[in-house]
Amino acid sequence: MGLFDYFKNSRRSDTALALDIGTHLIKALIFRTDESTGRGVVIGVGKVKQSLGDMQSGAVSDIEGVVRSCEKAINKAAEMCGESPNQVILGIAGELVKGKTTTVHYERLKPKSKIDLPEL
Q1: For 31-46, what is each residue's pLDDT tens digit?
Q2: What whole-number distance in Å separates Cα of residue 54 and Cα of residue 48?
Q3: In the chain, fewer beta carbons within 10 Å around the N or the C end?
């Protein structure tokens, strides 16, 4: 099964995969949103150590090896819950990854009301 086959023919529209590609570990979580609380509920977990030589000094040195490790972690999570997510949240670590923080200021229409997901 290919890496993106997990997202085809998904049985549920509210499941997602969180994939964290670190320099030492790849972690996969499959979760769904609880409609009553709006919170994520983890239903599948997979964790795989990167193979020696896949990452070097925080950079990918063997992309095929990293992809294989991702597939293993995703497989473990999918086997645990029997779900095929149709969304992905991806985290990538490393010294060469650059990030940017943005701050937005705006006036809320109802400042005393609770901030809900659509407002975010």
Answers
A1: 998 888 888 899 999 9
A2: 12
A3: C
